[in-house]
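Tokens for chain A. Residues wanted.
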């Protein structure tokens, strides 16, 4: 009777016109409720029953309902949704089929189109699937309609978490495959024959995609270092389907005991890998380094055929150079290789000293390797400090990339450049004020210049102050990738273009093509202005995938330590209003310590101030902890759905009465 009454419809429309409205983004929580965040920074509570109409990240219009001094948002109109597909687990019980999203922020009533046919098609309870959103609840008013697009992993697959993670971040889960005749596509490029020179590679023991080899000799000026880099651009045609796929991927994805290459495996792990004793197409540069460690003259780039004479690993080389006379049972090189390693070691030490005095050098951080069993579980975490052999390779690659930046700047004024502008423009004044506290005089103009920033970093390095280093790091702008040369402040160089990992990085592959176009004196290679943003986005997705997998594996590995009395040594690397983030020194895991677990009684947490800007935890106007501090922590609990490790202080803060 009232259903199609035009008067009631008009009355309803008039009432709605009088209700305040706001547009914003839906921010869900794992508790069921959420918030509407408007473009002007205001937040309105969305109750659980209303959250069933929307998804995390939706842009919506909403009515703002007032209830006394509280207000809440009632979703009314969908403007856009950033979720079109998501990963979920199938639940098949008592003849009914439903799904549970892997993301705890995605909740709602999901009706599955064709759900009753899934069992006939081989799907089982607990299988992981990719789900496509067909209809949105806010548009239809009857919940969400979805369909199962494909199976991601079987319910009993012990390594399902890998596939779930890459699917969540829309990354490929296997190597690209192309039926392609592997022939050199640039026969017009003259290649020198360096197969007789005793090049060597230094990599991890299990590395398959070896893309750099080294050869060095002394001369009257100092040293002549030849860096040979695998040349996949000799096999991957520009603008081919294979090239487009490599561009889409951007990088090889590395997860514990698992990688997804950017290029087909018969290229990355075979034809382009610098395997011992195999003739390979390479792009090379010869770098002259004087006795002080400075690169002198103009670096020579050229194409070549080379052959790795020795496949070495970091551990053997480090043990040999660090303990040469101590252990008769350890690996030892022959006379020819021994001379190469000692020569490279001497040049590396001088090169590092020169960069320390003239550029910016990062502090060494250990690598953490998660060892997995056949059930996909971590049974050991190796903490591997950066040792002598790592420095040999790193300094050689940094030198080669600096030279490539100069070479592409001089000849092309384009390429794929890693750039960094130093401090964010809106944080320069804060940087000046902070430095003044440590008697380092500066100003905005000076810190905005490469020379001024480099000098400042050299001054702060002498202080060896971890707290200051952390504070300064939080004032930095984000690193970027550009198609034209720009300065790289945090390296302390005028330009930096990586080309030493073309098997693993699409930007390096592009730089190979540009360098070869200079050698051939052609002008047929151009770098899109959009390539930087595309590579940045691809790298961001990969880092999120790496984070998610590591969180899960660490949570499994440490689950037996929950509520134990085991004390971990940890470094504070972030302080936010809600608490403290720390990194465990022995295994690399990160714990979040809420403010309520910084003291014995959670009720006392209100008297603790976690100051994000100062990077300090303050009690009664006294600094109790700060960024860079090494503290003892314990594992309190694990948030299973997110893999977040929640810690507590082993020695709680004392809050005065």
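Reply:
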């Amino acid at each position: 009777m009232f259903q199609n009454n035009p008067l009631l419809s008009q009355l309803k429309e008039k009432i709605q016109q009088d209700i305040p409205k706001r547009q914003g983004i839906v921010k869900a929580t794992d508790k069921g409720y959420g918030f509407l965040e408007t473009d002007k920074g205001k937040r309105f509570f969305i109750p659980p029953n209303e959250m069933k109409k929307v998804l995390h990240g939706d842009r919506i219009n909403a009515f703002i309902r007032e209830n006394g001094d509280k207000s809440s948002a009632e979703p009314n109109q969908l403007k856009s949704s950033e979720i079109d597909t998501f990963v979920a687990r199938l639940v098949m019980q008592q003849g009914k089929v439903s799904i549970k999203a892997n993301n705890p922020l995605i909740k709602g009533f999901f009706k599955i189109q064709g759900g009753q046919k899934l069992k006939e098609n081989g799907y089982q309870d607990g299988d992981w699937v990719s789900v496509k959103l067909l209809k949105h609840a806010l548009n239809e008013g009857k919940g969400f309609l979805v369909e199962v697009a494909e199976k991601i992993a079987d319910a009993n697959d012990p390594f399902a978490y890998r596939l779930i993670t890459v699917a969540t971040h829309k990354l490929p889960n296997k190597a690209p495959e192309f039926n392609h005749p592997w022939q050199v596509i640039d026969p017009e490029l003259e290649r020198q024959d360096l197969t007789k020179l005793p090049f060597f590679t230094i990599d991890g023991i299990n590395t398959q995609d070896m893309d750099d080899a080294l050869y060095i000799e002394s001369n009257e000026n100092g040293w002549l270092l030849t860096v040979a880099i695998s040349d996949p651009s000799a096999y991957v045609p520009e603008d081919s389907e294979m090239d487009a796929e490599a561009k889409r991927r951007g990088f090889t994805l590395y997860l514990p005991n698992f990688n997804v290459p950017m290029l087909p495996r018969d290229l990355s792990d075979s034809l382009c890998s610098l395997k011992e004793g195999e003739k390979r197409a390479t792009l090379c540069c010869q770098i002259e380094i004087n006795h002080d460690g400075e690169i002198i003259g103009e670096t020579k780039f050229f194409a070549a055929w080379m052959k790795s004479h020795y496949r070495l690993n970091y551990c053997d080389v480090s043990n040999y150079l660090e303990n040469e006379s101590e252990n008769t049972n350890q690996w030892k090189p022959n006379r020819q290789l021994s001379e190469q390693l000692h020569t490279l070691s001497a040049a590396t030490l001088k090169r590092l000293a020169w960069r320390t005095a003239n550029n910016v050098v990062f502090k060494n951080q250990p690598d953490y390797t998660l060892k997995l069993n056949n059930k996909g579980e971590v049974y050991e975490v190796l903490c591997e400090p950066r040792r002598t052999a790592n420095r040999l390779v790193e300094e050689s690659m940094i030198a080669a990339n600096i030279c490539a930046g100069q070479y592409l700047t001089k000849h092309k004024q384009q390429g794929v450049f890693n750039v960094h502008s130093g401090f964010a423009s809106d944080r320069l004044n804060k940087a000046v004020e902070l430095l003044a506290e440590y008697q380092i005089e500066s100003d905005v103009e000076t810190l905005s210049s490469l020379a001024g920033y480099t000098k400042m970093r050299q001054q702060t390095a002498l202080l060896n102050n971890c707290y200051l280093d952390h504070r300064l790091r939080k004032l930095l702008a984000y690193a970027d990738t550009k198609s034209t040369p720009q300065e790289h402040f945090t390296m302390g160089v005028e330009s930096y273009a990586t080309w030493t990992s073309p098997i693993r990085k699409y930007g390096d592959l592009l730089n190979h093509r540009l360098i070869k176009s200079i050698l051939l004196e052609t002008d047929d290679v151009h770098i899109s202005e959009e390539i930087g943003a595309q590579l940045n986005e691809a790298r961001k997705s990969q880092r999120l995938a790496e984070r998610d997998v590591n969180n899960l594996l660490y949570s499994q590995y440490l689950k037996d330590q929950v509520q134990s009395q085991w004390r971990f040594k940890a470094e504070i690397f972030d302080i936010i209003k809600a608490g403290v983030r720390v990194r465990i020194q022995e295994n690399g895991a990160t714990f979040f310590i809420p403010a309520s677990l910084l003291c014995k009684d959670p009720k006392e947490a209100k008297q603790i101030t976690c100051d994000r800007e100062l990077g300090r935890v303050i009690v009664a106007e006294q600094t109790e902890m700060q960024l860079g501090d090494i503290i003892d922590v314990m594992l309190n609990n694990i948030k299973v759905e997110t893999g977040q490790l929640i810690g507590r202080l082993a020695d709680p803060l004392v809050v005065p009465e």
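The chain has 15 helices and 30 strands. The radius of gyration is 29 Å.
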